Amino acid sequence: MSKKNIVCFGEVLWDLLPSGKIAGGAPMNVAVHANQLGLNAEIISAVGNDELGKGIMSFLLSRGLSVENIQKNEHQTGIVEVTLDEKGSPSYKIIELVAWDFIRSTELAKSTIQATDAFVFGSLALRNEISKKTLLQLHTDAKLKILDINLRKPFYTSELTDELLRIADIVKVNDEELEMICAWYGQTGDETQNASFLKERYQLKGIIVTRGANGAFFIDENNVVFENQGFKVTVNDTIGSGDSFLAAFITKWLNGESPAIALKYACAVGAFVATQKGATPLISEEDILKFME
Questions:
Q1: Phi/psi at 177 (nearest 5 deg)?
Q2: Is residue 48 predicted with pLDDT exceeding 90?
Q3: H-helix or E-strand containing 132?
Q4: Beta-sheet strand order (sheet of 216-219)
Q5: Measured between alpha carbons, how far is residue 3 from residues 117, 118, 202, 288 in Å?
Q6: How far is the CA of 69 from the CAs of 9, 106, 244, 291, in angstroms?
Q7: Domain coordinates of the chain in residue numbers?
Q8: Pairing between strand 13-17 and 20-24?
């Protein structure tokens, strides 16, 4: 069976943790995890002409990803100052006007998206009009559009979120973001009602809601709800857990597995990553299957 392809669009950056720097950015994390879980994954982004940019390129190449859609520009490579609370949950200070704020539309990016099975993008990378304009040009070539909502203060508005929900086929959102978005429309039901409301409002093919330590649920095209309670683990840090969850879900989904299997596998991968340090630890299928037993 030939490998399925995904392309992720958005931020590549360095998370500056108290213990040192780790390559990150949600779209890059999704691409790295999808690649190691069995998809052909690529990322469309930008770095600066600086040492941090060279470091991102080296990191991606070391993890087996192509860097041909990583543009270079005159802005500095993205950095995020991260602090962790006593539970390992991160807070972020995301530096502005960095390279990934200025991703341009190119013929290569366009042809890469036309050839892919799924196009994954988030809301954070669209805080700048240039990257936003690029995404809105490129998405029209995608077969399947997956929106990973990533509401980071102060880089989101209800208007931008609405615009992205309108172009998405499948949406991943966490429980807090779901409640916040539904409140914008005066919708105040329970989680399943809220997810169904968004799914119907935007005519989505599916919606995934993550609940941190309490697992996740998925509502499919036929409004069937699939739920998984998650896996109890000792958390090292939660950076990248949601991204690895999404990568795992997409991997199983594109390979034709049932939503229930995709959800269980995704919850296991997300939980496993929470036991590790940083956003993109090495993972093998064996690790996850052992973990699920």
A1: -65, -40
A2: yes
A3: helix 129-138
A4: 70-73, 40-48, 5-9, 118-122, 145-148, 170-174, 206-210, 216-219, 225-228
A5: 10, 12, 30, 20
A6: 10, 9, 21, 34
A7: 5-292
A8: antiparallel
Place of tokens 């973990």: 291
Lowest mean pLDDT among 53-62, 117-126, 276-285: 276-285
SS3 call for 206: strand
Q: Mention the CATH class of domain 5-292.
A: alpha beta
- Residue 200: the pLDDT is 97
Q: What is d(CA 46, CA 67) in angstroms, rounded to the nearest whole number?
A: 10
Strand order in the sheet with 78-84: 20-24, 13-17, 78-84, 90-94
Using CA atoms, how far apart are residues 31 and 34, in angstroms rounded to an integer?
5
Whole-model pTM: value is 0.95
Strands (E), 58-144: 70-73, 78-84, 90-94, 118-122
Type of residue found at 54: K
